[in-house]
Amino acid sequence: MAYVSRFLDRLYLLGAWIAGALLILLCLLVLYSIVARLVGWFAGGASDVAGYVMATSSFMALAYTFRSQGHIRVMILSQRFSGMKRRLMEIWAHVAIAAVSSFLAFYMVRLMLDSLEFGERSEGADAILLWIPQTPVAIGSILFALSTIHVLLIVMFNYSSIDPEQTEGGGPQEV
Amino acid sequence: MNEVLSIAIFLFALFFLLGTSVWVGASLLLTAMLGMYLFTSAPIGDALALTVWGSQSSWTLTALPLFVWMGEILYRTNLSETLFRGIAPFMRRLPGSLLHVNVGASAVFAAISGSSAATVATVGKMAIPELRKRGYPEKQIVGSLAGAGTLGLLIPPSISMIIYGVTVNESIAQLFMAAMIPGVSLALLFMGYIIFWGMRNPSAFEPEPSISLGEKLKAFLGLLPVVALILAVIGSIYGGIATATEAAALGVLGSFVLAAFQRTLTFESFVESVIGAVRTNTMIMFILMGSGFLSLAMGFTGIPKALAEGISLWDPSPMVLILTLTFFYIILGCFLDGISSIVLTMAVIEPMVRAAGFDMLWFGVYLMIVVEMAQITPPIGFNLFVLQGMTGHDIGFIAKSAIPSFLVMCLFIGVLVAFPDLALWLPGVLK
After folding, report:
1. Which of A66, A88, A172, B376 is the 20 to 30 Å CA partner of A156?
2. Is the ipTM value over 0.85, yes or no?
3. Is residue B401 predicted with pLDDT exceeding 50?
4. Helix or strand or coil: residue A3?
């Protein structure tokens, strides 16, 4: 069990690294389009590609951000509970997010399969086949669903390792 | 379907989920799904996938991760020191003396960073220990920093403003233009309060020794790279040379140049900035997925339309509507963070505000200020949390110290209502 859990954590981290690489790529892409416009090179569809790169980056990091407690939630009420009540509330919250993320992953995969089947193309200047950028996004959403189920199982069977009353974790960042 | 009933169902579901500490993004998605299930026969999953894909791959939104990254890079530089040394010599002789550095440095940092928490953290890192050393009262140090730090939301570039712009389909460049003069005015108003306080308590701290003109010049030269970065980011937008996204990419590049110049750019800090940016960005994106889908679901129910019609019938004076909304956002801000309260309410508030005849650029500026106020109201206010971590005081003390800043912001909303051109003049000129 611990071995599987460690392997999954590595997988989320890998997703975060890919997301980071894509963030750098996004920046380079935008810089390229600025230069291209100044010098008159071709940069058609760069803005569409930038959108795909951003979407992939965000989805790839969903799992890592969830696992490292980066997503925001309101803790005013749950902080007043302790022991069994707190644990039940944690289980409920994790069941909710696991259900949502699994639902999302299922339909993101279906969106990709539909695009593939009907050969849908982007309406932008790039006219790219949509399943190509949608595939990594679908993979990211599967990874996210996996991470929420993973943490749900930890909350149910190994609560002491992430008991929020003991460990507050990194906590969410705020802008 | 009866609108009152559907509003009640939405509100109950949303607050139940948020209250039971379900993640904000997931709460929004679940509420929207429930709404679609109850009030429409549309295929929920397919609509969800299409909305999420469409919003997450939109070009307008690409400014967001880049500005987040820029903030993460700058946070890891020596900027807090540069700002303190560069600004302190010029504030020395005002009543209230170095307390003004809190405001000045926050305003400057806000002009290169889109985040309020990062502004407080960066400025406070240097200013808190330096001001303490000189015997300034804790209450004033914390209070002025809590208030001025929120300028990060108002003075462009601002991440919250990008989120607002994407949500209501307004040009981000235009919004950035609208927010500039109000941002600077609010900073001046904060300084006005400190002058007021300083005149009444002239001997509450040790006076600063005077320094030579040469040293002043040296301090100012230290600020030049920062000024250049501000010009590259905001100037390129105002000059019509770059879109918001392009300005953000230039900002990332400029921040790296600045970090290299200060010799604070290492491989570790580079990797940390990337991973930090990815985490923050993804956190925001998850909330945006939820809010995008909730807007769609709300649209199906006809609630926003009904409310907009209700407002048209009621026909309140702008003053009454703004007072009501301000009260509403302050209450909401007690429980929610800034981004969540923006995206959560816009689906309903936007048609209402449009129906009442407000300019959406002006409303964006207004919204940033009320959300700023929410950042310093307990029990949930992220600037309070950041300051708690930095000073070790409890939330109650920090919130109490921030009351003058809070009142200054209330006053400024009045000014903004009385003189809407503060926000609307610059976008009109630069169009």
Report:
1. A172
2. yes
3. yes
4. helix
